[in-house]
Amino acid sequence: MRHPRPPQPPSPERSAELRRRFAEEARSERPDLSALCLLVGAEGDGSLDEAGLGAAQVELDRLAGELPFRPGTPRAWAEALRDLLGERYGFHGVGADYRRLESSLLHAVLRRRRGLPILLSVVWMEVARRAGAPVYGVALPGHFVVGFGAEPGLAGGSAGGVEERVLVDPFDGGRLLSGDDAEALVAGTTGAAGLTPSMLEPAAPLDVVTRVLNNVRAWAAGRPEQSAVGLWAIELALLLPSHAARLRYERARLLVERGEFLAGAGELEAYAEVVGVVDEAGAERVRGEARVARAMLN
Q1: Do β-strands 202-203 and 175-177 pair in parallel, antiparallel, or remain unpaired?
Q2: What's the CA gap between 216 and 203, in Å, rounded?
Q3: For residue 149, is pLDDT > 60?
Q4: 27, 40, 282, 290: which has the highest count of C-beta atoms within 10 A?
Q5: Residue range 94-107: average pLDDT?
Q6: What is the spatial distance between Cα 17 and Cα 104, in angstroms, rounded to a whole number?
Q7: CB 38 within 8 A of CB 52
């Protein structure tokens, strides 16, 4: 079976501007999730210009405008979003979506109405937020979903707490989830049994973006010919205010794999200096990789 060709990247000048804006937004007091996801999309798809970025935001606004005015309870909000996005507009996911880079790019998900659980959840959250819903993302292990109602740990909800929080699965068209349903999702993707309170904590916008970029990296890792995609996903992640130090090592390794031996060796050596403070043996192994990379220049 022949798979569609992934979108092509932007020019170096366009990429530099997108990254500047991405870093600025990520470091703002209240990072805008849709703006960050669209900038990720523009880095992955050179055809997404300024007009396209604006059109995607307008589409989210338009969808929000089609929701009923203040449905009421968290369950009513969840049902309104399911009826609009899942049933009327057909936003959902299927297994084949995991094989497409576009499934991680927000503008493409808005166009195709298909995508990974986390990007479909971004659509649900951004449409609901614009309409005034009490909404937040929930990063269940292996499957992202959306919560409606008072965030865990915050006061609010109905008197008995029955309607306080409702979980939905946008990948399944916005199906409302019982506790057993959520446990089954986690068990099906990770094999783990049971839910812990920490699994239901709201996901901050930057945590969502980190997970989106991790998905892009995972997609590229299984496709050596798409190493450029993995590289830009790592480099965007490095622009976030908080990121794993090991990302620098992964970037260095990827540069070497792409034949950029000198740049990769320099990055490996710089990473070894950082690691050496706490793990000299590990740092020496990384220096050995740098020496091998430099030898490839001969």
Answers
A1: unpaired
A2: 18
A3: yes
A4: 40
A5: 95
A6: 21
A7: no
